[in-house]
Amino acid sequence: MTAAILDGKALASQLREETAEKVARFVGEYQSAPCLAAVLVGDDPASEIYVRNKQRACERAGIESRLHRLPAKTTQDELLSLIAQLNQDTSVHGILVQLPLPKGLDEKQVLDAVHPLKDVDAFHPENVGRIAQGRPRFLPCTPHGIQQLLLRNGIPIAGKHVVVIGRSEIVGKPMAMMLVQRGDGGDATVTVCHSRTKDLRAVTRLADILIVAIGRAKFVTADMVKPGAVVVDVGMNRTEEGLFGDVDFGPVSEVASWITPVPGGVGPLTIAMLLENTVEAARLMRGKEPTG
Ligand code: GUN
Which structural domain, as residue segments, surrounds residue 35? Predict the structure, then answer.
């Protein structure tokens, strides 16, 4: 079997068009654009690229983007004071603090300080709690992108066994919570694997849908995949030999039925969903019901 490609780049472009239409309707109604404030602390080169890409995508969709650059030596109090100022500013609808923060800054305290109604990453405990209870306000960008990629390619999720490798707060945990919920895009049987999982291969071979988010190049090999499984690769590992996902793409694509490439799979969807959340945040500030 040679797997069909799950084309995240094409879907992201379609989603961005859909968001741009929502932005245009918002501007028509309120004569001002949704606005995302991005906070970049320090000079991590990968973060610089991510933030630049997010800003460019905002501008293309008609969303205003404001970048707040702070030096690596910024103190916790200085950063918290900027967040407080952005929370107060009614012209700012979404706040994104690019991670990782430089050493010495308390990431949890900073993310907790973002107002839950402006928390377009869905990292705030109130928003995470709402996801756990099946009444989300914002959905976290990467898991939401993956869910849309499955749904819009007609891949059944209900009743399927989904195995997630990785238990991060950004991808693994929220992904599992979303897929186990009742309703469209949910109703899966979900197993979450991590570094302490015994006989990982035996578990991953049970997966109808295998989602890999552990940040180790080519970690998932063909023998770990059930023939015909759908494989979603969240990894972006820059090595001396080049950029690789967490999945050994060539051999695994001979076993799987569907697979995401790296790049061009999950990555572009993360940004598309950030734009979507920013419009949603703007609508919420105007007292609109979530679009769901
Ligand atoms: N760094 C890596 N991924 C993300 C993300 O989804 N959001 C933020 N804010 N920072 C990140």
Answer: 30-120
